[in-house]
Amino acid sequence: QVQLVESGGGLVQPGGSLRLSCAASGFTLDYYAIGWFRQAPGKEREGVSCISSGKNYTYYRDSVKGRFTISRDNAKNTMYLQMNSLKPEDTAIYYCAAKGVRSSSVYYTSKGSYDYWGQGTQVTVSS
């Protein structure tokens, strides 16, 4: 069974940090671009950060740039999102996603482009 499973979410105070992990099973991430998306209550799912399969290119939405860092460890078949200086507006369910690619230097910011999705992990930033 092809699966992506997120972990690491939880409750954190403003200014705090959290690291999300996403473990893939049933397929290898070596030739997949990956992305992190989030969805707040009453809002549409939005792209947070993306990275190419070759780790050469990354994307961050403006609101998280400088605070979040996306990474991947293909040997462990796992992707990560390090979140620092968290703000209340970061509160959302965070999802990881993967898309098979031909090129190692491309990524995708549209949620409709992805083949596989995780179940989501809740991140709540509150004092």
Description of the molecule:
The protein is mostly beta strands. It is 0% helix and 48% strand. It has strands at 3-7, 10-12, 18-25, 32-39, 46-51, 58-60, 68-73, 78-83, 92-100, 116-117, 121-125. Strands 2, 4, 5, 6, 9, 10 and 11 form a 7-stranded mixed β-sheet that branches. Strands 1-3-8-7 form a 4-stranded antiparallel β-sheet, with no helix packed on it. The N and C termini lie far apart (39 Å). The model has no long low-confidence stretch (mean pLDDT 96).
Topology:
Blueprint: E1 3-7, E2 10-12, E3 18-25, E4 32-39, E5 46-51, E6 58-60, E7 68-73, E8 78-83, E9 92-100, E10 116-117, E11 121-125
Parallel strand pairs: 2-11
Antiparallel strand pairs: 1-3, 3-8, 4-5, 4-9, 5-6, 7-8, 9-10, 9-11
End-to-end span in angstroms? 39 Å
How would a crystallographer describe the biggest sheet?
Answer: 7 strands, mixed
Principal-axes shape call: globular
Helix count from the secondary structure assignment? 0
Ranges with pLDDT <50 over ≥5 residues? Answer: none
Total strands: the figure is 11
Gyration radius, to the nearest Å? Answer: 14 Å
Question: Could you name the key traits of this structure?
Answer:
48% strand, 127 residues, seven-stranded mixed sheet, four-stranded antiparallel sheet
Describe, in short, the structure shown.
The protein is mostly beta strands. It has strands spanning 3-7, 10-12, 18-25, 32-39, 46-51, 58-60, 68-73, 78-83, 92-100, 116-117, 121-125. A hairpin with a 6-residue loop joins strand 5 and strand 6.
